Please model this.
Amino acid sequence: MRDLFLISQIVFYWILYVFCMDIFLWGMFRRMGVKTWHAIIPVYKYYVLCKFTYGNGWLFLLLFVPIVNIVFYFKGSIDFVKLFGKSTKFGVLNAIFTPATLAWLAYAE
Model:
């Protein structure tokens, strides 16, 4: 019974995380001038983010390559926030604390 409770909590917080990330990406896509409904399609949102950041959306496939995905994720976070006039330090923070920094980028200004 206790294991079921733990599993249900994990699932609940994972769904909450995904929901919040979709809301924050919705705001970012609105700010980027992209159709906002693209933010709720699971893999396509990363294609759109890579296309906006690098001009080539197919680079998101690097996120599926082990070890390379960590480097690409940090580099992509830094390059993405630089498009909005933020520093490299903010890009590193974006890679580590993605929900908080995306919320700030999407809705603060």
User: Anything to note?
Assistant: The radius of gyration is 15 Å. Residues 20 and 99 are 7 Å apart (CA to CA).
